[in-house]
Design a protein that fits this description.
Layout: H1 8-15, H2 28-44, H3 68-79, E1 83-86, H4 89-103, H5 112-124, E2 126-128, E3 131-133, H6 142-152, E4 157-160, E5 163-166, H7 167-173, H8 185-190, H9 194-224, H10 234-238, H11 243-256, H12 260-265, H13 276-279, H14 281-302, E6 311-312, E7 318-319, H15 327-355, H16 378-394, H17 416-446, H18 455-465, H19 478-490
């Protein structure tokens, strides 16, 4: 770790414990230099915000030299007022990684020992208990980052080997000694966007995975509905060359290649065009991919950006600004939430077509073996509709809201943490909704046997059948949906379904 930008895949690898973190020795000189600037300010008695003043509305209050250490300690304690369930271990690990990485840039005025402490906590599995609510994402994620800093100094709570403990005890068991904060170090730990980045970034990583699975589910649905791949002709997409659209069209042709189902009705198909939910998959799925790719670019930049305040420069200047404001991330997460909700919408429409006998080209009503006696997937679609409604409500942007805080000094906030939490919730319901389409489409393909679908679709069909058996008679489908969603989440549809 050296302050270089991190991809979501790199962050996710550390978050789930696959990778350890090592601090690049090359960062030491710049971190030491930045800290020395702060030490010199304290020695001279210069008045500098965050070093020897109060915070926010109290920035005009000068703090005496003998109170500087208490200033940082009180800052951490007072700001640790998070609310609600604790963030997951993966989210906390991502947050620790991201915070440590930006501190190595050398703009924060802290000692390298503080960064090393974060890295050691990460590698030894000391995970602070960080409530998920309480940040407005303006002076950074103050409350979540305060809980992180609280564990670093041996206060608050932390998990160690899945046991929730007092932080001092968790550090002791891990062989670590609580840190003692010096001038500006508490503020440097609290100002930043890493809580929203961690939560929203890991959600975005899951969402990006889901776009590929949606292509697979859509291709299966197209085959089950005896649709046509004509709309995926690459010449069409070269004429409107959005990268995501072109990629999805090529992906669909790859999945559908060699279809016996298509060959069976190629010459005697009275339909001119399929419904939009089938025909427009490249345009819609591709636009979703484009939106998520844009959001990933924002997070890539943010992962190596100094987001605390004030910033300390090697010239000796200490400059106050607003790099802690979460607007770039808040907008991104809201954008991703809207795009993902539309991906859910087009998936739900395909599921409806397969279950509605008026639209399904000969499939039995609700894919039941004995319609009337059996209800088949009828209520699975109702569940999908409920999930879609929830996502539509959640996709209202949090970033358009504003509540003035800190006695009017912080008069415009990003609400980025709310955007991140909403995106996480939408990803959760989207995984289940796409799982419903996968199960429905696999069942639809059962009725097209003995004809085989495209090679990629057949591979996906086999993967679904390894998780869930055919619906020969009514049974509770909750566990089937949960298993399919878990397979999506764990990456079971990540390989073998993309054109090489």
């Amino acid at each position: 770790m050296s302050g270089r930008p991190l991809t979501l895949a790199q962050v996710a690898a550390v978050a789930i414990g696959e990778e350890t973190v090592e601090l690049d020795p090359a960062v030491h000189p710049r971190v030491h230099g930045s800290h020395q600037v702060v030490a010199d300010i304290v020695g001279r008695g210069d008045v500098v915000y965050g070093v020897n003043t109060g915070f926010g509305k109290l920035a005009d209050v000068r703090v005496a030299p003998e109170d500087l250490l208490d200033l940082q300690l009180n800052l951490v304690r007072s700001h640790a007022c998070g609310i609600g369930p604790a963030l997951s271990e993966a989210e906390v690990r991502a947050m620790m990684l991201l915070r440590a990485n930006v501190l190595t840039l050398g703009f924060s005025g802290i000692r390298v020992e503080i960064i090393e402490m974060l890295v050691e906590m990460l590698n030894r599995g000391v995970h602070p208990v960080i409530p998920e609510k309480g940040s407005v994402g303006a002076s950074g994620d103050l409350a979540p980052l305060a809980h992180l800093a609280l564990s670093l100094i041996g206060e608050g709570e932390a998990f160690f080997r899945a046991e929730r403990l007092e932080s001092a005890e968790a550090l002791r068991r891990a062989g670590l000694t609580p840190a003692r904060l010096e001038a500006k170090e508490g503020l440097a730990l609290l100002n930043g966007t890493q809580a929203m980045h961690a939560v929203g970034g890991l959600a975005l990583f899951r969402a990006s995975r889901l776009t590929s699975v949606a292509d697979v589910a859509g291709a299966m649905s197209l085959e089950a509905l005896m649709g046509t791949p004509v709309a995926f002709d690459l010449r069409l997409h070269d004429a409107r060359p959005h990268p995501g659209q072109k990629r999805v069209a090529a992906h669909m042709l790859f999945l559908l290649e060699g279809s016996e189902i298509r060959e069976s009705h190629l010459r005697n198909d009275p339909r001119i065009q399929d419904a939009y939910s089938l025909r427009c998959m490249p345009q819609v799925h591709g636009a979703v991919r484009g939106a998520l790719a844009h959001c990933e670019e924002i997070l890539f930049i943010e992962s190596a950006s100094a987001t605390d305040n004030p910033l300390v420069f090697e010239t000796g200047d200490v400059v106050s600004g607003g790099n802690f404001h979460g607007a770039p991330l808040a907008f991104s997460f809201d954008y991703a939430a809207i795009a993902l909700t539309d991906l859910m919408g087009i998936s739900e429409r395909r599921t409806d077509r397969m279950l509605n006998p008026d639209k399904s080209d000969g499939l039995p009503a609700f894919l039941a073996r004995r319609p009337g006696v059996q209800s088949g997937f009828m209520i699975a679609h109702v569940a999908a509709a409920a999930l879609l409604n929830e996502a539509r409500v959640l996709s209202h942007p949090a970033s358009v809201d504003n509540v003035t805080t800190s006695a009017g000094r912080e008069d415009h906030v990003s609400m980025g943490m709310t955007s991140a939490l909403k995106l996480r919730a939408i990803v959760e319901v989207a995984e289940n909704l796409i799982a419903i389409e996968l199960l429905t489409a696999a069942e639809g393909l059962e009725y097209r046997r003995p004809l085989r679908a495209g090679v990629g679709v057949e591979r996906a069909f086999k993967a679904v059948r390894e998780i869930v058996k055919p619906l020969t008679e009514d049974r509770p489908l909750s566990k089937d949906i949960a298993r399919a969603a878990a397979a999506i989440r764990s990456g079971d549809f990540d390989s073998g379904f993309e054109e090489q």
